[in-house]
């Protein structure tokens, strides 16, 4: 996928240079300077965590949890092994940014993880990479080898007594393995199914040991924060929404791709960067944060800025930053049918409300989309949603319900029309 605009993660990357991802090029653009700074200036673990807190870096995987706070949960004096895990199991429909990071700037992630290991006193890390990608996995393995050979990774890093081992792990291609506890189960060689929480991974994680899990983009943002300072990172964005963020824009725009822009950028500006609407059509709606985020109609979306707080206030989620743009020809019933099928298909089946409820949601939306809807179906969808959300082991149940609620809130009349007339007012989603 093409990367069009650059912020912290892709700063200085010359994509025209075929070696842009290699260690030599990364070092030329300031790479590993943050790690050197920490080790040479003997910056303490607390100081590193404080810098990350100052930056207001929030988890880029979807939840948006403050990274510095998460790092501070890791027990300091735990007597056994602790683990650091990177979640590169990117599988949310519409999201395609993390694989671009490990293909185009893998050392930013590696350096970020080494710094994370230092800050939390962790000596072993894993990067869990989505199972259906091969080039990205091999690229990351190669980058790891470069870092080891150069003394940035492994035993006695840069001649100090700090040691950090980092391994790549190829996942199994299941969407649910992106849920952090399912990922840990999978990493342990078991079936990738989410665990009951609590206990949380900070106390009972990989192999039952304290574990911190962050997203790829989150780790890749850390070197900049340490090198340039948390305050500078914060000021790139807006309060509580520090830095730049990658947005994977797909759908009916002229230039779909990854756009790394300051948090707080108006959505209208992002749309303009994407070359506007394809074919000069009118914007109808946007799913602003991956398929589980409730859809927002154009008139609301055009008032939003692209940051966690603005999108939440509008009634949706920034999530992973996957922006799915839909034009005026889109039939929302068909769009919801696709989304509902996805969650039904990807449910791990462990708990009844999700296993049965996602299938039920899908079958009802399917019959509406195929002209067989019943007058009571919309109430039934809402009621099933209420019996799934908040009643499952992991958030996939909620993720299946949010798109249904968003569609019924903003585009109910389309569903009603289709139930009554047995056909859509719009062309199918192209
Ligand atoms: Fe599995 Fe769904 Fe339950 Fe999550 S909510 S544990 S995906 S059945």
Elements, N to C (H/E): EHHHHEHHEHEHEHHEEEHEEHEHEHHHH
> In which range does the helix fraction lie?
40-55%
Q: pLDDT average, as an integer?
A: 94
Largest sheet: 6 strands, mixed
- Alpha-carbon distance between the two ends: 19 Å
- Compute the gyration radius: what is it? 22 Å
Order of strands, main sheet, comes to: 1-7-6-12-9-10
Bound molecules: iron/sulfur cluster
Number of strands: 12
What form results from the Cα inertia axes?
A: globular
Counting helices, strands and paired strands, the structural category is alpha/beta
Range of strand content: 5-15%
Query: How many DSSP H or I helices?
Result: 17
InterPro entries: NADH-UbQ_OxRdtase_51kDa_CS (IPR001949), NADH-UbQ_OxRdtase_suF (IPR011537), Nuo51_FMN-bd (IPR011538), Nuo51_FMN-bd_sf (IPR037225), Nuop51_4Fe4S-bd (IPR019575), Nuop51_4Fe4S-bd_sf (IPR037207), Soluble_ligand-bd (IPR019554)
Organism: Chitinilyticum piscinae
Cofactor: [4Fe-4S] cluster; FMN
Domain NADH-ubiquinone oxidoreductase 51kDa subunit iron-sulphur binding: 333-378
Write the layout of secondary structure elements.
Layout: E1 3-5, H1 23-28, H2 33-40, H3 45-55, H4 67-72, E2 83-88, H5 98-104, H6 106-120, E3 124-129, H7 135-149, E4 165-170, H8 180-187, E5 211-215, H9 216-228, H10 230-236, E6 244-251, E7 257-262, E8 265-266, H11 267-273, E9 283-287, E10 296-297, H12 298-301, E11 305-306, H13 308-313, E12 322-327, H14 332-346, H15 352-369, H16 377-388, H17 396-421
Parallel strand pairs: 1-7, 2-3, 2-5, 3-4, 6-12
Antiparallel strand pairs: 6-7, 8-11, 9-10, 9-12
Bound molecules: iron/sulfur cluster.
Iron/sulfur cluster (SF4) is lined by residues 176, 194, 347-351, 354-355, 392-394, 396-397.
Cofactor: [4Fe-4S] cluster; FMN
EC number: 7.1.1.-
Family: Belongs to the complex I 51 kDa subunit family.
């Amino acid at each position: 996928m093409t990367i069009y605009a650059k912020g912290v993660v892709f700063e200085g990357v010359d994509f025209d240079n075929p070696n842009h991802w290699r260690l030599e090029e990364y070092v030329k653009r300031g790479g590993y300077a943050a790690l050197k700074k920490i080790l040479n200036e003997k910056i303490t673990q607390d100081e590193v965590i404080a810098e990350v807190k100052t930056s207001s870096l929030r988890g880029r995987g979807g939840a948006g949890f403050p990274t510095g706070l998460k790092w501070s949960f890791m027990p300091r004096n735990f007597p056994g092994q602790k683990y650091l895990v990177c979640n590169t199991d990117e599988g949310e429909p519409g999201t395609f940014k993390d694989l671009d990071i490990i293909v185009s700037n893998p050392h930013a992630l590696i350096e970020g993880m080494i710094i994370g290991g230092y800050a939390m006193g962790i000596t072993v890390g894993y990067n869990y990479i989505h199972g259906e990608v091969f080039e990205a996995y091999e690229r990351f393995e190669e980058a790891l080898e470069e870092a080891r050979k150069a003394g940035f990774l492994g035993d006695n890093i840069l001649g100090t007594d700090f040691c950090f081992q980092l391994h790549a792990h190829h996942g199994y291609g299941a969407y649910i393995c992106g849920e952090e506890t399912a990922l840990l189960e999978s990493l342990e060689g078991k079936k990738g199914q989410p665990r009951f929480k609590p206990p949380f991974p900070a106390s009972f994680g990989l192999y039952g040991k304290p574990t911190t899990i962050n997203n790829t983009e989150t780790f890749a943002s850390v070197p900049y924060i340490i090198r340039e300072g948390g305050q500078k990172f914060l000021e790139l964005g807006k309060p509580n929404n520090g830095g730049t963020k990658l947005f994977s824009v797909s759908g009916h725009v002229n230039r779909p791709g990854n756009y790394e822009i300051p948090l707080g950028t108006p959505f209208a500006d992002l749309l303009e960067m994407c070359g506007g609407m394809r074919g000069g059509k009118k914007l109808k709606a946007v799913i602003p944060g991956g398929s589980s985020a409730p859809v927002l109609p154009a008139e609301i979306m055009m008032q939003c800025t692209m940051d966690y707080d603005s999108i939440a206030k509008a009634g949706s989620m920034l999530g992973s930053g996957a922006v799915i743009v839909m034009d005026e020809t889109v039939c929302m019933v068909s769009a919801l049918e696709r989304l509902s099928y996805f969650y039904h298909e990807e449910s791990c089946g462990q708990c009844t409300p999700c296993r049965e409820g996602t299938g039920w949601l899908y079958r009802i939306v399917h019959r509406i989309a195929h002209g067989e809807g019943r007058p009571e179906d919309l109430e039934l969808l809402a009621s099933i949603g209420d019996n799934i959300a908040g009643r499952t082991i992991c958030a996939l149940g909620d993720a299946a319900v949010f798109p249904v609620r968003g569609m019924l809130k903003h585009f109910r009349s389309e569903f009603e029309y289709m139930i009554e007339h047995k056909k859509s007012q719009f062309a199918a989603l192209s």
